[in-house]
Design goal:
Elements (H helix, E strand, L loop, with lengths): L7 E3 L5 E3 L20 H12 L1 H33 L4 H11 L1 H4 L1 H10 L8 H20 L5 H32 L4 H38 L1 H13 L13 H16 L2 H15 L5 H9 L9 H26 L4 H23 L2 H4 L4 H28 L7 H29 L10 H11 L42 E3 L3 E3 L5 E3 L9 E4 L2
Antiparallel strand pairs: 1-2, 3-6, 4-5
Helix pairs in contact: 1-2, 2-7, 2-8, 2-9, 3-7, 3-12, 3-17, 5-7, 5-17, 6-7, 6-8, 6-9, 8-13, 11-17, 13-16, 14-16, 14-18
Length: 527
């Protein structure tokens, strides 16, 4: 069983890393913090130097909302569309693709939180808004007997938008603290990774049991609890109020941000890898909806119970952790193109495990369905991490100085758009092959077609740089000069962070605008 899931946690320089990542702890399985101290001392240090409310915000967003909420919610939502709304697998995939749209427009949320303070605050109001959106949407689904499809879709999308907004806010908080407290950058990365890892394991472990006990609607109602924690973090988070903010300059800041990102995207070293990343996801249709219906169908499927579905996902998340450890300890110094080549080939081969399960060849080999399904999901999650982590490193190296966080959010949105289209394309494939709630005769054809299409991105590998993961990809004119480090670029004497606006010259090359050409406007004050 394969499950496409992209989780994000902030990297210290404003970029993102895949979560969960136990490799931060030195390969010790997360028992010891990166600096060798026990977790209590490590968390105490973060609380003392960054304020305990920051730690609470990370735990609420990455541990509760993204960790427990995303894993728990994915199982509950699958059963909701299947058993409550009783839609076909293709429709279920289409609806779940729509729900992910707020993650596609993630840079928009980032721009709002950075340049549009509310009552002088840039973080607190948006966390409060995210909490309200999550609580109201999930309670609406739980308390209404059987809401129509459109109201249900609006509720799911609202909850996803709240989670995306909360994610962007904490991303910005980690980025700012990494600039003001560089020695704590690794500790903050570890905190995000551990919270997301532990949350996902807890969420998957209890999801099936809760759905079995109180139904999918009741389980979705419980998803309001993580949003309550996010709301509480918004109340308690420490933030200095910005004074004399010029709201009439907001449009200018938006313009500068968009101009900078567009100029960067026109650079060949940037747009070529972006095209590959988009095609890699689009050309691999997601048919998880059809497989989920088959796993849980009691007549012609495998008739897996809710509890066992949760167990499969929880064990699969362990496979994901093993993939992170393997990458951190053995593969992080290899060239991008070679890693992506072998990752794509292994993804194609691992997809054949689904084919063995769907055609029931595993029974001829003497392997029961439940054991084979657990192995299938674990291997798929492991290989998925081996594909995903090099892409994250590549994306982090495509971000120009001054707009790292916003541009990385844009790159993540490109990949999320690819995943959304993959879900829709997979739904069309299931519909064309006649895979329904009760008819799975052609499901093996969908699995075979998906695996074959996973070879297509290999034709576009030439778009990926040959360099290794420790080299620089951006052209020299987009890198910090000799006069300062990357962390110093874009900071003026007034203690604010500014955009370094890029433009194209007459030859199409990306250069930085001169001061007399465009006056820089402060983007965000340091907290």
């Amino acid at each position: 069983m394969e499950q496409e899931q992209l989780q994000e946690t902030p990297h210290g320089d404003g970029n993102l890393k895949a979560a969960p990542d136990p490799g931060y702890g030195g390969g010790n399985g997360g028992c010891i913090a990166p600096n060798g101290t026990l977790p209590c001392g490590w968390l105490g240090r973060l609380s003392r130097e960054l304020h305990w409310s920051f730690v609470l915000a990370v735990v609420a967003v990455y541990g509760a909302c993204q960790g427990v909420g995303s894993s728990f919610g994915s199982v509950a939502a699958g059963y909701y569309w299947k058993d409550v709304q009783r839609v076909q697998p293709a429709a279920s995939q289409f609806y779940q693709g729509v729900v992910n749209v707020p993650w596609v427009v993630k840079p928009l949320w980032g721009l709002f939180t950075d340049v549009v303070p509310v009552a002088g605050y840039r973080r607190r109001p948006y966390l409060l808004l995210a909490g309200v959106m999550g609580v109201s949407s999930m309670l609406t689904l739980a308390l209404r007997r059987t809401p129509a499809i459109v109201p249900a879709l609006v509720a799911f999308t609202t909850q996803a938008a709240g989670a995306a907004i909360a994610d962007v806010v904490v991303d910005a908080m980690v980025a700012q603290n990494s600039i003001s407290h560089p020695p704590l950058a690794a500790d903050m990365q570890s905190l995000c990774g551990y919270c997301s890892s532990a949350g996902a394991l807890v969420g998957y472990s209890i999801s099936g049991l809760v759905v079995h006990a109180i139904g999918s609607q009741g389980a979705l109602g419980l998803l309001s609890i993580p949003s309550v924690l996010v709301f509480s973090a918004g109340i308690l988070v420490k933030e200095e109020r910005a004074k004399d903010f010029e709201y009439n300059q907001v449009h200018k800041k938006f313009y500068e941000a968009v101009e900078s990102m567009w100029a960067t995207l026109k650079c060949p070293q940037v747009w070529r890898p972006c095209v590959y990343m988009f095609l890699m996801f689009v050309l691999s249709p997601d048919i998880q909806g059809g497989l989920f219906y088959w796993y849980t169908d009691s007549s012609t499927g495998l008739a897996f119970s809710e509890g066992f579905i949760g167990l499969i996902y929880s064990i699969g998340s362990v496979g994901s952790l093993l993939g992170v450890l393997l990458y951190q300890n053995m593969l992080k110094d290899y060239p991008f193109r070679g890693l992506l080549l072998w990752g794509q080939l292994l993804a194609c081969l691992s997809g054949m495990i689904d084919l063995v399960l769907v055609t029931r060849l595993n029974l001829r080999l003497g392997m029961p369905d439940y054991l084979f399904a657990v192995m299938d999901n674990s291997v798929s999650q492991l290989i998925g991490q081996l594909k995903w982590l090099p892409l994250l490193v590549l994306c982090s190296k495509l971000c120009p100085v001054g707009i790292e966080g916003t541009f990385f959010a844009l790159l993540m949105s490109i990949q999320n758009l690819g995943l959304l289209m993959s879900a829709w394309w997979g739904g069309l494939l299931l519909h064309a092959l006649g895979v329904t709630r009760t008819e799975f005769g052609n499901l093996w054809v969908a699995v075979l077609a998906r695996n074959a299409m996973r070879l297509l991105p290999l034709a576009f590998l030439f778009l990926v740089p040959r360099s290794d993961q420790n080299s620089t990809i951006l052209p020299a004119e987009m890198l910090p000069g000799d006069g300062g480090s990357a962390g110093d670029v874009g900071q003026g004497s007034s203690g604010v962070i500014e955009f370094s606006v890029l433009r194209g010259d007459e030859n199409g090359e990306v250069v930085e605008a001169e001061e007399e050409e465009l006056e820089l406007t402060p983007l965000m004050e340091k907290i």
